[in-house]
Design goal:
homodimer, 5-stranded parallel sheet, 8-stranded mixed sheet, 16 helices, globular, alpha/beta
């Protein structure tokens, strides 16, 4: 369908364009097109290279597999209403009252083969280019709402000047444009939709009018009665809030990681200790260790903050705690690999048959970006193991150009030396799985995420060797 | 009163001896002697050098000033019951069914004048000596309950062998002695008593019998119905739990500290950002920055853990996140001092008249151990300022051999260049204080702890210069 035809079918509706149809933008397009408070016509824009996503959205297949049933419900409802279109045509911006920026902004990390972070850089050019296409096409009174996690200072120092320059080139006023920032707290998984629609939001604008318009828009898509909005004084503040809260989480995971090694040496169960300490209300969010930290946010956001300190605010203080968090977490999959060999007394994994259950970085979602299973897998391969991967949410591992098995029953019929629980998908917690594994002989089970319950471990230990990382008794 | 006379007055009561009458032991003696579940005769033992504390307890003056009214109530009740005695006589241990170890275990830090931690050491000798005095005197079936924060491994590797060696020297059995570990979570301040009596506890024993006896004893002094006990598998685990939870807190404060500098550079209010993020249940314990971290625990416990890694468990992994937390926090008072000069544009503080309101490390309690106000004060003095200190809870600053003013009204009549809120005592939050200060002319107010409310700051700014550190808008 052409844009004009789509708009013709959606007369009198405010047009919202979403730039970027990834894990945030695609689901954002569902939430906006399903607003119960206002009728929007929603156009998702992505690059030509993402033609598969665009075609899928327009032809009845939502591109993200998720355990949240609301995703499919919302998508079917959007199809029924006919108010959702995907395109790579930049002209879409010219019809928009609101443009939501949900594109990527990556950090380039240089690490050695053990996960030691040697250096990193932030290349703002792709982001700048995307903002420029908005400026080249948008109305002069559009509201541009940036949701991308950016280095603090970006809305004022990057977005605003680019948009204004492009408006001036088109002889348009720069007085009316509104730029807001409100970061998403999207959680892929069973609460995917709710993590946008029913959750707290922080927002700001580059000026009073921008903040007011941002608030008005957010109120039409978020349940702000139950989850009140918080306004911060400027975009620097909201941009910083986002990287700060993710840095906090990354650091707290790193904390669990370093103490898990300690627990191993002292012969105690960290899981038990963490549970005991969590009874203190002030310590209730203490984390468990695991195979590592993955995904698009926690692996880079503290570095975005550090980068901005130097590049946007000319400071030479560094964020030691936050950067250290990323560094420690990056090494975790390598530690998990070493621990596996040590725990099962394997000098080498040569010709060992290993089944990795789960490659996604997070349970019940198909997202392999910066998954900690990737370095873990590569370590196994470098050690000449024969590795098969399974994941109910991922058919093809893009980062490694690898086909991923979808048939758990079949895989469990094969003969394995080691089975690794590497993602905590619900499917793996099915008692049937434990039952099948418990009948295997001489197998090693490595649970990196606390999937096995105490009674499972007792049952499995009769016939198999079981080592648990995620439960903390390393 | 002699011990024998005391015991004669307290016939048929189990004797509990508390070793160490400091901020934990003294208050512990009140909680035990006020048990509603069992009648105990409580003897507090301290060193001859602490004769003042001993004399005070025996003569009607409790040695700790606190804002918790229960402290005085409990003390008066103990006097009435006649079941509390203090002594330096080690013979006390020979009568005890239970001996609670509440002595210090210090870390020796070597830091430069800017608070940079160059090295540290743990000297276990004073602790070992104290345990030895127990072993030389105790019954063979005593329960020794260690509450002191120790390097993980200490109960098994230090306490047990010393006690057993001393029992053997006296031809006593080593089979019957019980050694438990249950760390306190004492919070001096308005909830001092409750932080012992009505709070969660973790415990363990060196063997099954020790754990059981520890539990039975704790149940007689703690409201375990509302605050259930958690048993961990061994003393390594509980010892680690304690240093882990304090490391977590120290690290999270350090996190706030490093982001507070960032906020200053980006011109945003960190306090506002922290409040916005705290709405997320997973981030509700995010901390505010301040003048620094003090007190006996958070300044050293992560280092105890690091020390034990090398010395008790032969590991060369270090606890990077946790140590970094201590390092960053140690520098905070120096940063607060530099910020004060920068914010008020003072090149030097020479001859400036400065009033420091509060020297205790914590609000509403008189405890100057490792107070961050100490390096802050010394920086002022080194810069040749004339500094007067006030603290309602501290008459004499032992660490600096300094008299401390007790009369706030008088001090506020004097002529000051800078008034610093350095401890958040309730007395300083009295509207009268703000009213008096607002009438001063040309004064600089430096609030390191968020004592001033938004309306106070507006009011004060009319006549004075106000800079706020603790509220985050550095």
């Amino acid at each position: 369908m052409k844009i004009k035809e789509f708009l013709n079918n959606n007369k009198n509706k405010d047009v919202v364009v979403i730039q970027g149809l990834g894990f945030v933008g695609a689901v954002m397009s569902l939430v906006v097109s399903n607003s119960s408070k206002k009728n929007y016509a929603v156009i998702g824009v992505d690059r030509k290279e993402s033609n598969e996503i665009i075609t899928n959205i327009n032809n009845g297949t939502f591109p993200i597999k998720s355990s949240d049933p609301k995703i499919e419900q919302y998508y079917q409802n959007s199809i029924k209403k006919g108010n959702l279109l995907a395109t790579y045509n930049h002209l879409a911006y010219s019809y928009a009252s609101v443009i939501i920026v949900d594109i990527n902004l990556d950090v380039q990390k240089k690490s050695d083969s053990n996960g030691n972070l040697n250096s990193f850089n932030v290349d703002l050019n792709p982001f700048k280019k995307a903002i420029k296409t908005i400026g080249q096409n948008c109305k002069e009174d559009v509201l541009i709402l940036v949701e991308t996690t950016v280095p603090p200072g970006t809305c004022l120092k990057v977005v605003k000047p680019i948009i204004e320059a492009e408006l001036l080139k088109r002889n348009l006023s720069v007085e009316k444009v509104k730029i807001g920032h409100s970061y998403e707290r999207v959680m892929p998984g069973p609460e995917y939709i709710n993590s946008i629609k029913n959750f707290y939001r922080v927002y700001s604008g580059i000026d009073e009018n921008s903040a007011v318009e941002t608030e008005l828009f957010l109120k039409t898509i978020i349940s702000t009665k139950d989850y009140p909005l918080t306004r911060l004084i400027n975009t620097n503040a909201t941009e910083m809030a986002k990287v700060l809260e993710n840095s906090y989480r990354a650091m707290n995971i790193a904390f669990a990681v370093e103490w898990s090694r300690y627990a191993e040496e002292a012969g105690v169960n960290l899981y038990e200790i963490v549970n005991a300490i969590r009874m203190r209300p002030t310590h209730s969010n203490l984390m468990y260790p695991g195979i590592g930290v993955g995904g698009y946010c926690l692996t880079k956001d503290p570095l975005l903050a550090s980068w901005a300190k130097t590049n946007h605010f000319n400071s030479d203080h560094c964020l030691e705690q936050s950067e250290k968090g990323v560094q420690i977490n990056d090494k975790m999959p390598h530690f998990a690999f070493d621990y596996m060999k040590r725990a099962f007394s394997f000098k080498t994994l040569k010709y060992k048959k290993i089944l990795l259950l789960g490659i996604s970085y997070r349970s019940d979602v198909g997202d392999t970006r910066y998954s900690p299973v990737e370095p873990f897998y590569l370590n196994c391969i470098n050690d000449k193991a024969n590795v098969v991967t399974h994941d109910p949410y991922v058919k093809y591992w893009n980062e490694l150009n690898l086909k991923v098995s979808q048939n758990l029953d079949e895989e469990l019929k094969n003969d394995w030396d080691i089975i690794v629980f590497s993602t905590a998908h619900t499917e793996y917690k099915n008692p049937k799985v434990i039952s099948i594994i418990s009948k295997m002989s001489k197998i090693c089970i490595y649970d990196t995420l606390g999937i096995l319950k105490e009674k499972d471990i007792i049952e499995l230990n009769i016939n198999n060797k079981v080592k648990v990382l995620g439960r903390g008794d390393i």
